[in-house]
Structures are given as C-alpha cells and as structure tokens.
Amino acid sequence: MRTALALAMALVCACATSERGPESAEIEATLRAGGFPSPANYPGNGNIGVYEGNSTASEECLIYTTVGTEVHQGPADGPIIANIVGNTIVDPTTGATLCTRDGNELVERVRVGALETDTVLFTVIGRWVFDGDIVLTGKTLPQILAELDQKLLYTFDGPHIYDHSPWDGEVLATATAPLSNASKTRKLVLSAMIAAECGGLGLWADEEH
C-alpha cells in the first residue's frame, strides 16, 4: 500500500492526535458538506486543452481538447473520440454508450456501458478520483480510511491532474483552466481519457507521440 498521506489522515479527524494541515481541513469540509460545489461558469467546465505533463507550453504535448460536448484527440480540429450526451459517454461513430455516470452530490461514479452494469470504473469525491466503487455506508472511519488510501488514483489540483496525490505523485496532465472545482462529470470524463477508458486513448494520445 502506498505511504499514508494527508487524504487518509483527514478521515480520522475524530481520533487524530497530531496537528492537521490545511489539506486535511479541506477534505473534512468536503465530506461534511456533501461534496465540492461546481460554481456556475467555472472555467474547468468549459472548452479546455489537456496536455501531457506539467505544462501547457508545448503544442506537441496537447493530447485532448474539449469543445462543448465533444472530446477531440489533440487540437480542436482533431478527431472526435467521445461525445458527452447527458449522463453518458458515447462513441461518436456508432452512437453506442461507452460509459454512464450516476451518483449524488457527494459521490459519483462512471460505469462501463449502460446503467444496468455493475462494473464501476471510477468514483469521484470532491477533487479525488478513486479506482472502482467506494462505499461509505456501514463502515467505520478506519475502514473508510484504508479504502480511500488504497484506491486513490488521481487528484485534480488547480490545472493539474496528479497520479495519486500532489504529496506523493507526479503530474500526469495539465489543463488550460483550473479543474479542482470542475463538475464531477468533467473529472470522470478526463479520468477516463487519460486512463484509456470510455473511448479515451490514454496519455500521449497524439499520434505524433
């Protein structure tokens, strides 16, 4: 299991003895408030470019561009690889449902195919994306702590998407707008794209790479 980090520590607030940092307070507030808000007209929900690595300086590193409900490979005039239709990610050629989003204000998930499937690819809570399904009910705090720490995949921090977290992971991709408070749908879609799920091509999707 990865080294314990601030994300995990935040969830044991009732029994923690050490002084908590600002990231712990942020996570606790997120859970208590029922999830991060997605402000109206938040830049990360609009048209953005997503670049491999920690900078948007090199056009050669542009891997995805979102334009309205479309996700393009590379720049905005590149091939459309996915359409976002309501709660679904749709194949732009066949119209087939690739993945479906469902959930509530605190926890949202993306599932393979239509809603009737039980296969959960990702769960989003606030600015954190986890592998598979996360079940918070019926568990003690230590159990939730262990599950979240073990399953954390990505953290959205400003314009960056981190592998695991900013405290122990590298920057996988950087957007042209902040993403921390983007909608859960946007986080799920971008997570799918960089993980090569739901029509995504993974990192270095641009054919030049």
Write a structural description.
It is a single chain. The chain has 209 residues and is of the alpha+beta class. Helices cover 19% and strands 30% of the residues. It contains four helices and twelve strands; from the N terminus they run ααβββββββββαβββα. It has a twelve-stranded antiparallel beta barrel with strand order 1-2-3-4-5-6-7-8-9-10-11-12. A hairpin with a 7-residue loop joins strand 11 and strand 12 (171-175). The longest helix has 12 residues, at 22-33. The model is unreliable at 1-24 and 205-209 (pLDDT under 50).
Please outline the helices and strands.
Layout: H1 6-10, H2 22-33, E1 48-52, E2 62-67, E3 70-73, E4 80-85, E5 88-90, E6 97-103, E7 107-112, E8 120-125, E9 128-131, H3 141-151, E10 152-157, E11 160-163, E12 171-175, H4 184-194
Antiparallel strand pairs: 1-2, 1-12, 2-3, 3-4, 4-5, 5-6, 6-7, 7-8, 8-9, 9-10, 10-11, 11-12
Summarize the structure.
By secondary structure, the chain is α+β, with helices and mostly antiparallel strands.
List the keywords.
12 strands; alpha+beta; 4 helices; 209 residues; globular; twelve-stranded antiparallel β-barrel; disordered N terminus
